[in-house]
Amino acid sequence: MKSKKTLAMIAIGIVCIVVLINFIKKDLWDINSRLLQEQVLSIGQSVDTINLLDVTPFEWDVVYSFDPYTAKGQIYETVGYRWDNIRETVSEGMNQIVFLKNGEVVCYV
Asked: Does an H or E element contain 102, and which?
């Protein structure tokens, strides 16, 4: 009887850890997205091009840019990673950019 209770407690602990990790990752995406937005908005309007390394205040090793109306499934397949808060683009001027570090999404705008 005691071993079933112990196993149940371990299982609950594992579930809590997984939920916490996913929550932290989601917060990381939001934080990095806000930081990137602040950096881009601080650039003068006379600048024609920017280097992403100069405006990303977080570490990344791969970046993907997706055209408007790219399906979620295609983005997941290209990136090789599935995450919760991806949305379909809804207008012609809405591109999506996904930054990865070590194969995991660290920023999504």
From this structure: none
pLDDT tier, 19 (very low <50, low <70, confident <90, very high otherwise): very low
Q: Please name the residues in contact with 56: beta carbons below 8 A apart, sequence gap of 6 or more.
A: 32, 36, 39, 99, 107
The string of DSSP codes covering 12-69 is HHHHHHHHHHHHHHHHHHHHHHHHHHHHHHTS-TT-----HHHH--S--SEEEEE-TT
Residue extents of the structural domains in the chain: 2-108
- The string of pLDDT tens digits covering residues 23-72 is 555 577 778 878 877 877 777 777 778 788 888 888 999 999 888 888 88
**Strand pairing category for 62-66 and 104-108:** unpaired
Distance of CA 98 to the CA centre of its chain: 6
User: How many alpha carbons fall within 13 Å on the CB side of residue 56?
Assistant: 19
